[in-house]
Structure to design on (375 residues):
């Protein structure tokens, strides 16, 4: 455990599970933008962990804003060509204890090549998997283009990865949470400047194409936590038309055309994220929940109220849980000293985390009508 004044980071791995150009990086940028807006004026901060994350998110945000100012929007951004990990730190104004959400991303082409095994490896260490879903493709392609929908969303490949991930982690006694996150939803909700409310239709389309994936996840995870949360990743855009093009690899893809909404004076409206807050909140609450379990275990272990079997069962909850406990208790020869040190710091840690919990609790209640319970 870090000494007084030192920073103690508690990381949580999240793997983005989707093909190229589905909107993975835009979704991650939206999480930070939404958090900054929501927590403005509070002690809670959500910031890039490192320069790689800061630069990637800034570049993505810059492209989005410049497109809006130019009164055009083209969602076909170039996909990542390298494997990357983006980190967002979440703190409550006390830097001694921070949560670090580390999002593992990779070239979407990995899913359908020999490198799919690498995606499986990334998922194995991740309690959480986020599946970004191209809402425009689902809503506008039509039944005649079902093959293009399945190809564009990588459905077969994503299902197989979910099956392996949920089975492997559940059999090991580790946690899972699956998040289905439709992106580019601006034309289907009227709570962020849009003209129409097609929330029910979007949910039904996701159920139609992702129903078997959810069944697989529930069977393999023992009905683990599942979340459906549509996000406006851009803001002031309106779908005008769609055409179809053949890309460099010979795949037929949808090319949407959007208009940019204007204010009363005719100026293009700024980027405005909607729906990302609950996604961020539930991620942070999962970390806090496991961390609270670990702290309680430290207290019980210090009081010698746990058997060796109970300790081992709790330690197997997740790789993160193991690391957290190791920070506190260390090996057998140092356990007594470390537990005494840990006990003396529990009150301070709990006070820091309580500030974060209060802010996140209010954030997770901001689900509005977007978050749905899957039947």
């Amino acid at each position: 455990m870090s000494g007084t004044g030192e920073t103690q980071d508690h990381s949580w791995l999240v793997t983005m599970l989707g093909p190229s150009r589905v909107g993975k990086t835009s979704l991650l940028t939206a999480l930070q933008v939404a958090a900054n807006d929501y927590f403005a004026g509070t002690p809670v901060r959500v910031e890039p962990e490192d320069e790689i994350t800061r630069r990637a998110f800034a570049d993505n945000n810059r492209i989005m804003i410049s497109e809006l100012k130019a009164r055009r929007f083209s969602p076909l951004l170039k996909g990542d060509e390298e494997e990357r990990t983006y980190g967002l730190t979440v703190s409550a104004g006390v830097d001694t204890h921070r949560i670090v959400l580390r999002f593992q991303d990779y070239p979407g082409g990995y899913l359908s090549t020999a490198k799919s095994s690498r995606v499986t490896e990334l998922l194995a260490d991740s309690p959480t998997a986020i599946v970004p879903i191209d809402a425009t493709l689902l809503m506008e392609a039509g039944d005649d283009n079902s093959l293009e929908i399945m190809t564009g969303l990588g459905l077969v490949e994503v299902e197989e990865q979910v099956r392996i991930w949920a089975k492997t982690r559940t059999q090991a006694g580790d946690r899972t949470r699956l998040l289905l996150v439709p992106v580019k939803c601006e034309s289907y909700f009227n709570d962020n400047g849009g003209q129409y409310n097609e929330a029910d239709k979007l949910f039904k389309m996701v159920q139609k194409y992702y129903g078997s994936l959810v069944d697989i996840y529930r069977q393999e995870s023992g009905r683990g936590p599942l979340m459906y949360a549509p996000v406006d990743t851009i803001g002031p855009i309106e779908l005008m038309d769609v055409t179809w093009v053949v890309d460099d690899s010979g795949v037929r893809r949808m090319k949407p055309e959007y208009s940019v909404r204007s204010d009363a004076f005719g100026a293009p409206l700024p980027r405005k994220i909607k729906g990302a807050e609950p996604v961020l909140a539930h991620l942070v609450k999962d970390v806090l929940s496991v961390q609270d379990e670990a702290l309680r275990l430290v207290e019980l272990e210090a009081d010698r109220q746990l058997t060796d079997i109970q300790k081992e069962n709790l330690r197997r909850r997740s790789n993160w849980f193991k690391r957290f406990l190791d920070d506190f208790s260390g090996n057998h020869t140092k356990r007594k000293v470390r537990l005494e040190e840990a006990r003396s710091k529990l009150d301070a840690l709990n006070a820091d985390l309580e500030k974060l919990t209060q802010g996140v609790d209010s954030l997770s209640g901001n689900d509005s009508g977007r978050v749905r319970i899957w039947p």
Observations:
- The first helix runs from residue 24 to 38.
- The chain has eleven helices and nine strands.
